[in-house]
Design goal:
Belongs to the AP endonuclease 2 family. By secondary structure, this protein is α/β, with parallel strands linked by helices. The chain has one domain: Alpha-Beta Barrel (TIM Barrel), CATH 3.20.20.150. Helix content is 41%, strand content 19%. Strands 1-10-7-6-5-4-3-2 form an eight-stranded parallel sheet. α4 (123-142) links the parallel β4 (111-114) and β5 (149-153). α2 packs across α3 and α3 (87-107) packs across α4. The protein is globular, with a radius of gyration of 18 Å.
Length: 283
């Protein structure tokens, strides 16, 4: 007879950035301690406006994460477009990713999330090939070996590289790439349609028991469409509870990074909903 424990999801949950609402942290280094004291077990370090952290500080953050048992990830700068028509912009984009990988390596973060590109004049197929080429260059230049994944994020806009098909295919072709499922982005890209179970089943089919990195926030409905503007999760677009129900019946390792404007406050609400369905955070 199968034990109920064989279907226990291993969940890592925390904020995208420094806690500010339930408990105010002074810095990224301090935030690691605060996240643990709040009863959460993950945090994404946000380089979205640029990589301004030194290697030495990255090492200190990593040491703190080990001490407090916090699963770290990194978000690369938003100013990345590997399919730009301008060579200089592509080179600067690649360097931003290289720098993000470098700091992630020194802090022991396991994945660097990136919005890879806009299709632009290349179109989806040529952009796919260009993204693949530039990611290979960036990974080689970073010198991180197999220590860190590049997490290619599912994006909200249909003019951006990052459909579920593209990200999953890329991860099958490049061993250092893993898809990052942003549930709000996928909901927007599919115009308000999201079947959590289908996505989780596809993940298991394609990647087996690989750790799944995801983002969660509600988004705004404006001018007749869903847009990538983050809202508190109580807005229920998409709703979080159906995901919690799916995780309660699955043997999966997953990180849930809360990108709500309320950061750790909504991460704690997510934890409450998970616990309601019998899902406890990994220890």
């Amino acid at each position: 007879m199968d034990s109920v424990f064989e279907l226990m999801a291993r969940v890592y949950l925390g904020p995208a950035g420094i806690p500010q609402y339930v408990a105010k942290a002074r810095s990224t280094l301090d935030a690691v301690r605060v996240v643990r004291e709040l009863g959460l077990n993950a945090m994404e370090v946000e380089f979205v406006q640029g990589v301004r952290m030194s290697r030495e500080l990255a090492k200190q953050v990593g040491k703190a994460a080990q001490e407090y048992n916090i699963k770290l990830s990194v978000h690369a700068p938003y100013f990345i477009n590997l399919c730009s028509e301008e060579t200089d912009k592509v080179e600067k984009s690649r360097q931003r990713l290289v720098d993000s990988l470098d700091r992630a390596y020194y802090m022991g973060a396991w994945v660097v999330v990136v919005h890879a590109a806009y299709y632009g004049k290349l179109g989806p197929q040529k952009c796919y090939e260009k993204v693949k080429e530039e990611l290979e260059k960036a990974y080689k230049e970073s010198g991180v070996g197999s220590g860190v994944y590049v997490g290619v994020e599912i994006t909200a806009r249909t003019n951006q590289f990052g459909s579920i098909e593209e990200t999953f295919k890329l991860a099958k072709e490049l061993p250092f790439v893993t898809p990052v499922v942003d549930w709000g982005h996928l909901y927007a890209r599919n115009n308000g349609v999201l079947n959590y179970g289908e996505v989780l089943d596809l993940w298991t089919k394609e990647f087996g028991d690989r750790h799944m990195h995801t983002h969660f926030t509600s988004i705004r409905y404006r001018n007749g469409k869903y847009v990538d503007e983050h809202e508190p999760i109580e807005r229920n677009m998409p709703p979080f509870e159906p995901l919690a129900k799916e995780l309660s019946a699955r043997d999966i390792t997953i990180t849930l990074i809360c990108e709500s404007p309320l950061l750790e406050k909504d991460a704690l609400l997510m934890k409450e909903i998970l616990e309601k369905h019998g899902v406890r955070l990994a220890t």
